[in-house]
Specification:
With about 150 residues, the protein is of the alpha+beta class. It has 2 helices and 7 strands. The chain has a domain at about 25-125: Immunoglobulin-like (Sandwich). It has helices at about 5-20, 145-150; strands at about 30-35, 40-45, 55-60, 60-70, 85-95, 105-110, 110-115. The strands form 2 sheets. Strands 1-2-7-6 form a 4-stranded antiparallel sheet, with no helix packed on it. A 3-stranded antiparallel sheet has the order 3-4-5, with no helix packed on it. Strand 6 (about 105-110) and strand 7 (about 110-115) form a beta hairpin. It is elongated, with a radius of gyration of 27 Å. It holds the Pfam family HSP20. Belongs to the small heat shock protein (HSP20) family.
């Protein structure tokens, strides 16, 4: 025998009322962390057709789109329908120091993983310290005076 909980009906009604205006793109839960020279973004997209997942990079903007469609069964009387169909959208500003040409993505078991590599020039590096003499890359003492003046302009 099934138990009847009137508060469950009130919760479902409240969910239906508050979620109705959200027919537009839905957010997807995600984690973002740095592991060495890569940022790793993991986004939950359960029940998504992998062919509908789209990852775009435009300048420093990363956009993830996906679509979930549920089967439309005729002559069916729904008892409960909590899974929704619709569009999912997430946009992130990547900022500077990202190698946007090498971003890659993989979708497996309902999780989209996006590998975002740090650019070479943004990686920490050691600077050589010299003693005495002139450090490499500096202007030597016998350089023409005109060249020195132009470099200060």
């Amino acid at each position: 025998m099934a138990n009847y909980f009137p508060m469950r009906d009130v919760e479902r009604l409240a969910d239906a009322l508050f979620e109705a205006p959200l027919r537009g793109p839905r957010q997807m839960p995600m984690d973002l962390y740095r592991d060495g020279d890569h940022y790793i973004l993991s986004a939950d997209l359960p029940g998504i057709d992998p062919g509908s997942v789209d990852v775009d990079v435009d300048g420093q903007l990363l956009t993830i789109r996906a679509e979930r469609t549920l089967p439309n069964a005729e002559n069916v009387k729904w008892i409960t329908r909590e899974r929704t169909s619709g569009s999912f959208l997430r946009q992130l500003s990547l900022g500077q120091g990202i190698d946007t040409d090498r971003i890659s993505a993989n979708y497996e078991n309902g999780v989209l993983s996006v590998m975002i590599p740090v650019s070479e020039r943004a990686k920490p590096r050691k600077v050589a310290v010299t003693t005495g003499g002139v450090a490499e890359g500096t202007i030597e003492a016998d350089a023409p005076q005109a060249q020195l003046e132009n470099s200060n302009a």
